[in-house]
Amino acid sequence: MNIQNQPEENRSLRDLFDSAEGFRKRIEEGSSELLTDCISLYEKCHYLTRKLCLFSKNEGIDDINTSEIKFLLIDYYIAELLDKNVTSNRSSAIMKSKNLFISFLILCDNYALLTNSDKTLFDHLNSTEMNNENYIIRESDISRREGKIQRYKREKELNENISNFLKNPSKDDNNLRKHFLELIQLAIFKSLQSIEQLDLELKMIEISKTNKQNTNNNYHEIQTEKEMHSTLKVENNPLKNGALLDKNGKVLVLPNDSVF
């Protein structure tokens, strides 16, 4: 029986994950119509990992079978896909995506997969001080400059290693395990970058909403002042007793009993 046609409740975590991976690769090639279905498959994988208690705080990365290490990436993939999904409520999508990136990083941290540099940056991004714009600028321009350079070099190396493995796949357990761990390390880098970008985007949306609200308020104030001014102009016009006026108070037609 074709895996793709099996009822979802009868499919294993491995089958669902492989199908989701297939969809994700097609999305990367331009098949955006598969986005919703791909997210749904990964969400089913997420549910099964929780149901099966696949990961535990009481174990290390060496305790996870090589074939199951890739399941650590599920929340990361969902977050990445949600960020690509176009919705009318962008703020809500940003928060869902950000929370999943955070969930992924916490899971990696439980298995000691975050370097000291990763951990420091993650703590900064997760800090309440991130609401302070000056803090973001200070961290970006000064404290993390050297870290960004090192991160860039390491990310470039990881991309090259992953690309080489995909060109020449190996079934050797050690090579396969190394490949999965490099995928996770790359996902950690991208998650940290995405959280910072999503935070900044959310700030821009909030600023835009505030500016729009202020513009609307100013418009209503101006309209109210114009109406009041027009009313006072008509009431104070000496020819108002029966004269037909335009909106600016100018006489259009005098009443029949008017005397010049």
TrEMBL record:
GO terms for biological process: regulation of dephosphorylation; regulation of signal transduction. Gene3D superfamilies: TAP42-like family (1.25.40.540). One of its GO terms (cellular component) is cytosol. GO terms for molecular function: protein phosphatase 2A binding. It holds the Pfam family TAP42. This is TAP42-like protein. It comes from Pneumocystis jirovecii (Human pneumocystis pneumonia agent).
